């Protein structure tokens, strides 16, 4: 099955990256969000990203900015998803919000359309329960920035069929991605480890054991990581980090997942990281 048209729901950081990656690999994209201003910002971000990426252009990506943008339709109307073959959902990591989105798109999309949840922590089986196509729901945890990351984590829900898995693998291959298939569990593999690491790094900062800069330097210098845990938190978004760790805390009822009070305070203060210019570091 050669997927040509893909719906992307949510035009935040991840949705922008997914839409851009799809358009750059020859797919037609319908990018849907609830407000025109969000979509206008998304279009500008995609333009900026492609211009920046042109310095490191891969041969399999079209060089013409307008050619890429022409493949993306920006809309606030979910009805435009009725003929897509594949939907990738990227809305905020809040279950009530995700549940409403799936209840909305499930009757709109064709019966054969596959839903891929781009989530960092919410179980895929729970997401599938909000639809009438549980066998056609799969998790695809993309990494940020999407166009530059060659690997994703794919999650098999309780009802996910082998056909859905194979189609999703083909879809990812078309996007230039390799996938690792894992079983369903809150946080999956990557974020059960990563969120604990970031949360504990915030505790270290809160307890004044070290500065943010020195915490990150230790991980980069001692372990060879390209980014430290607090730099990574800023890249992902502190609000997303908090939502994810809260999902893990709720799901496992284990105190090791308790969110650091400093993390909560920073999110309350609107310090989300790179997405709005200030987190553990300041960005211009």
From TrEMBL:
Q: Which UniProt keywords apply?
A: Oxidoreductase
Q: Which Pfam families match?
A: 3HCDH, 3HCDH_N
Residues in the signal sequence: none
* Pathway(s) the chain acts in: Lipid metabolism; butanoate metabolism
Domain spans labelled 3-hydroxyacyl-CoA dehydrogenase C-terminal: 187-283
User: 3-hydroxyacyl-CoA dehydrogenase NAD binding domain: which residues?
Assistant: 5-184
Statement: the UniProt record of this protein carries the keyword Iron: no
Keyword set includes ATP-binding: no
Which family is this protein grouped under?
Belongs to the 3-hydroxyacyl-CoA dehydrogenase family.
- Identify this protein by name: 3-hydroxybutyryl-CoA dehydrogenase
Annotated organism of origin: Nostoc cf. commune SO-36
């Amino acid at each position: 099955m050669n997927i040509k048209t893909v719906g992307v729901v949510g035009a935040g950081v991840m949705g922008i990256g997914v839409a851009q990656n799809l358009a750059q690999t020859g797919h037609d994209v319908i990018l849907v969000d609830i407000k025109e201003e969000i979509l206008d910002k998304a279009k500008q971000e995609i333009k900026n990203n492609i211009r920046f990426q042109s310095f490191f252009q891969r041969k399999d990506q079209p060089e013409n900015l307008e050619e890429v943008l022409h493949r993306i339709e920006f809309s606030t109307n979910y009805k435009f998803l009725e003929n897509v073959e594949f939907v990738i959902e990227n809305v905020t990591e809040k279950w009530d919000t995700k549940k409403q989105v799936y209840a909305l798109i499930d009757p709109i999309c064709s019966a054969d359309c596959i839903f891929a949840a781009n989530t960092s922590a919410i179980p895929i089986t729970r997401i599938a329960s909000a639809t009438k196509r549980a066998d056609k729901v799969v998790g695809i945890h993309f990494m940020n920035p999407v166009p530059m990351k060659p690997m994703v984590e794919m999650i098999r829900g309780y009802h996910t069929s082998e056909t859905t898995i194979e189609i999703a693998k083909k879809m990812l291959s078309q996007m230039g991605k390799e996938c690792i298939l894992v079983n369903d569990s809150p946080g999956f593999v990557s974020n059960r480890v990563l969120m604990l690491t970031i949360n504990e790094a915030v505790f270290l900062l809160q307890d004044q054991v070290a500065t943010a800069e020195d915490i990150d330097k230790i991980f980069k210098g001692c372990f060879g990581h390209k980014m430290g845990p607090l730099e990574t938190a800023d890249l992902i978004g502190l609000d997303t980090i908090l939502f994810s760790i809260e999902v893990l805390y709720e799901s496992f009822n284990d105190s090791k997942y308790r969110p650091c009070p400093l993390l909560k305070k920073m999110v309350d203060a609107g310090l989300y990281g790179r997405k709005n210019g200030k987190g553990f570091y300041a960005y211009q």
